[in-house]
Amino acid sequence: MNRSALRHGLSLLLRVGITAVLLWYVFGKVDFEALRGRVLDFSPALIAIAVSILGAQVLAGAMRWRRVIYGIHGRLPFAIVFQLMFVGMFFNQALPSAIGGDAMRVWHVYRYGLPLRAAFNSVLLDRVIAMAALLLVMLAGLPWLFQLVTSSGIRMAVVIAAVLMAVGLLVLYLLKFLPAALTRWRIMRALQNLSKDLHALVAAPGVVFPVIVLSLLLHVMTSLVIYAIARSLGLGIGVVECLVLVPPVILLTILPISLAGWGVRELGMISALGYAGISSSDALLISITFGVLIVLVSLPGGWLWLVKKYHQPHTELSYSDATAGKAPDA
Question: In 220-308, at which residue ranges do the beta strands (DSSP E only) sit?
């Protein structure tokens, strides 16, 4: 076994272990009898609304990613981008690695003709923009968060996380101006290229504003899904409370320490929704339902991957450093 395979195996074992420990801890905090009884209380109509919002998120995510591709001078039909978003979503759930879905997106968009650097950076920048929007949502919600959350430790953790995110984004933006002496290392060249593509994205006409709006909308939609699930159980949580409490939990799930965010999300939901007066059992049920609905909505991605797996696509994407034309309509 080579060193890379060994590292991958150890990383997988660590993720499995962390996920198991977190779930064991979380399930130890809830009343199973109460949990079992609450399963029958779901409102099918509100669950259907939650599923619809998740489906709309895939659509909005595809619109954002396509504009990111355009911003770094690429072209790809919207139908293809939409399909690849489903494929990526499916593999984010199906593979143990937190980046499995992103890797699938990179690979398939590369097969459609985008150079490897551009394919890789389009997905990375899609993630970076999502993080930037999450930062904006968290900052906008801080006054309400501090009204709900009484723990000074949690308040400080949220502020520190926001500061670190802001610093990271600023550093990435400034890496374009890295001295040549530091670019002899491959990792530094890759980061500088990512920064250059970020600058190209910002400078592209008709791209930045729609991308930011779509990113903010995506985070709002996640909070609305949690709200719909909670309301389907008859819980009295408000929309504003969800908009304030859910984004920090989403930030936690981004950390690559568990399988598809399981365990981390449940612990975060129990902690966060507790400040809205929701019991541990109900918060756990909300989180599990959210995870299950994501899996269900992602299933078309698995079907698409099976159908297209052995088909070498035609090159439908052009890449040029001097691309002309208007921004894509979607």
Answer: none
